[in-house]
Amino acid sequence: MKKLMMLAALLLAGCQQEPKEPQCDQLCWQQQADAEWKKEHGEFQTPLSPEHEQEIYEYLKKHYPDTDFNDHELELGE
């Protein structure tokens, strides 16, 4: 009976562990996305235009209202 209880505990402990495959899948996905980005855009991101930067700040203000993004005013060159 004692061996049966130990075997059951061992099997239950083994079933509770999460498989490591999703981590590998995510790592592979990240590496693939990184390679695609570098192929399309080069090694480094190009600087944003002032208009695009303003769009990003507006998005951040809208979706994260309790942050310092609300205090930001971008001066667009005219």
Q: Residue ranges: pLDDT <50 for 5 or more in a row? A: none
The main pleated sheet reads as: none
The number of helices is 3
Instruction: Write down how many β-strands occur, each being a DSSP E stretch of 2 or more residues.
Output: 0
- Provide mean pLDDT, rounded: 77
The Rg value, from CA coordinates, equals 25 Å
- Compressed to H and E, one letter per element, the order equals HHH
Global structural class: mainly alpha
Estimated helix fraction: 55-70%
For the termini, the CA-CA separation is 84 Å
Categorize the overall geometry.
elongated
Relative strand content: under 5%
Could you characterize what this model shows?
With 78 residues, the chain is mainly alpha-helical. It has a domain at 48-78. The protein has helices at 2-16, 21-41, 50-63. The model has no long low-confidence stretch (mean pLDDT 77). It comes from Gallibacterium salpingitidis. This is Lipoprotein.
Secondary structure elements and pairings:
Layout: H1 2-16, H2 21-41, H3 50-63
Question: Main traits of this protein?
Answer:
Lipoprotein, 0% strand, mainly alpha, single chain, 3 helices, 78 residues
Short description:
The protein has 78 residues and is an all-alpha fold.
